[in-house]
Amino acid sequence: MSRFKQALAGTEPLFGLWQALANSYTAEICARAGFDWLLIDGEHSPNTAQTLLAQLQAVAPFAVEAIARVPLGEPVAIKQYLDIGFLTLLVPMVDSASHAQAIVSATRFPPLGSRGVASATSRASGFGADTAYLAKAHERVTVIGQIESVTALEQIDSIAAVDGIDALFIGPADLAASMGHLGNPLHPDVQAAIAHAKTRIDAAGKPAGIFALSPEDARSRAAEGFRFISIGTDIGLLAKGSQALLALVRT
Ligand code: 3PY
Ligand code: MG
Which residues, 6+ apart, have CB-to-CB distance to 137 below 8 Å? Predict the structure, then answer.
């Protein structure tokens, strides 16, 4: 079983930090802080395969799970992210069971799925040194789907039931937008939808994750039983920290 799946099966909530700076230096600093996981964002941040790889290498010495968010749930990105060595993928905008099945298929080599084969040339296989890689790769991968639209909410039971979708992560920003509350994830209707989604994910017996909107929100989400919770972003820390420092000096 993958490391992250094992951690999700434990009892302590796993706290993570969003990496949106697309930078290996800052990823290394954040890895040192002791988070359970870092989310390296290929959807909204200015990442390339090279910057993703550099961040993965920078955090490798630390006991932190490097989760990569692919730009979209399609095979080319999934293949490339797995080949460079990410073991855990967060896939945005998963709206149907058939999409979820296609995503899982893209993470497995035939006959289990449809992932294209690179073995001796992939970092994931230790550049060929790991001779068990092709046979074992699917056991090491964790696939997390994002629930972040009205359509996904309607389909949540069938999405959660897909074998190989290991966990589901609620994206409050896109969910709010999809519900007509752009920029207002704290709207009571969005909060109610999140609570409903959590009960459905629980009913499927899968771990639920969420992007918390503040430290207080993160603590409440942990108390509600969310298993993995993003508690901030690298950009937020830098922006707030730099503003606060200047405010201390410039009166
Ligand atoms: C969202 O809130 O839409 C995200 O994708 C991140 O949580
Ligand atoms: Mg989103």
Answer: 82, 108, 109, 115, 124, 125
Fold of 3-249: TIM Barrel (3.20.20)
Which segments of the chain have a pLDDT < 50? none
Model-level pTM?
0.98
- Residue 3 is predicted with a pLDDT of 85
Active site includes 44?
yes
What are the CA-CA distances from residue 55 to residues 36, 39, 241 (Å)?
16, 10, 22
Cβ neighbors of 225 (< 8 A, separation 6 or more) are 198, 202, 208
- What amino acid occupies position 160? A
Q: Where are the domains of the chain?
A: 3-249
Ligand 1 centre and the CA of 120: distance in Å? 35
Residue of 40, 90, 174, 179 to test ligand 1 pocket, by largest number of atoms within 8 Å of CB: 174
Q: Work out whether the CA dihedral 176, 211, 113, 57 comes out positive or negative.
A: positive
Ligand 1 geometric centre to CA of 242 (Å): 24
Contact assessment for residue 148 and residue 176, using Cβ atoms and an 8 Å cutoff: no
Helix (H/G/I), strand (E/B), else coil: 185: coil
Q: Which among 26, 143, 128 is positioned nearest to 94, based on CA atoms?
A: 143
